[in-house]
Amino acid sequence: MAKHVGVKLPEDLIELLKKEKTVAILATFSEKGVPNTTPLQCLYPKGEESLLLSIHKEHTGYQNMVWQKKVMICFLGEGNVAYSILGRAGVVRAPSQVHPLMNIVRIDIIDIKCDRSILTRVEQGVQWSYTSSEAEELEKSLFKELKELARTL
What are the residues facing 87 on neighbouring strands? Predict the structure, then answer.
């Protein structure tokens, strides 16, 4: 059964996000009501009540966020981390200083619910690796930009 935990990021989720290896699922709706899910890896906490993420400006999830603003993001990770965040999206930098096709979005938290099961335990999240050294360099640069904005925005 889901338990509402408020608007502040739980410490276990903050720790998971700071590892920079988390995959979250962003859920949005189009203007026509068509649902869309988008896997995201480039997310970082901004304090306890917001998240920053980097996303391609042409992605359907980004376009839906710009139109509707309200989003859901689901996190599943090691240590039985299982949360869904309802938030309000706002573009804070377009384009990113790192790449002209990437934009930075802030998600202000409206509500967080804990999705842990009483029957099962999340042992690990999605595991991924870089497809090239260029991809690794880009991702690390995007995370650096998110961390800097988390401190200064």
Answer: 71, 109
Q: Which two tokens stand for residue 23?
A: 């995959």
Beta strands in the chain (DSSP E): 3-6, 24-29, 35-40, 43-46, 50-56, 70-77, 81-93, 102-114
Q: Which residue ranges form the domains of the chain, and what is each CATH number?
A: 3-152 (2.30.110.10)
Question: In which element (H, E) is residue 93 found?
Answer: strand 81-93
Tell me the pLDDT tens digit for each residue of 86-134: 999 999 999 999 999 999 999 999 999 999 999 999 999 998 899 999 9
Q: Each residue of 17-51: pLDDT tens digit?
A: 999 999 999 999 999 999 999 999 999 999 999 99
In degrees and rounded to multiples of 5, residue 145 shows phi and psi of -65, -45
| Structure token digits, residue 57 | 């400006």
Task: Measure the CA–CA gap between 107 and 86, rounded to whole angstroms.
Answer: 9
**CA 87 to chain centroid:** 10
